[in-house]
Amino acid sequence: MPQTRASYHHGGLRDALLAACVALIEAEGIGAVSLRRVARDAGVSPGAPYHHFPDRSALFAAIAVQGHQLLLERLRAAREAAPTAVRGLGAILEAYVAFAREHPGHLHLMLRSELSASPQVPEAAHAGEAAIQLLTETVQDCQREGSAPAGDPEPLVAAVWALAIGIVTLWLDGPLEGRCVQLGTTPEALTARITALLESLLAGRAA
Amino acid sequence: MPQTRASYHHGGLRDALLAACVALIEAEGIGAVSLRRVARDAGVSPGAPYHHFPDRSALFAAIAVQGHQLLLERLRAAREAAPTAVRGLGAILEAYVAFAREHPGHLHLMLRSELSASPQVPEAAHAGEAAIQLLTETVQDCQREGSAPAGDPEPLVAAVWALAIGIVTLWLDGPLEGRCVQLGTTPEALTARITALLESLLAGRAA
DNA sequence: ACCCCAATCTAAGCGCCGTTTAGAATCTAA
DNA sequence: TTAGATTCTAAACGGCGCTTAGATTGGGGT
Question: pTM here?
Answer without folding.
Answer: 0.94
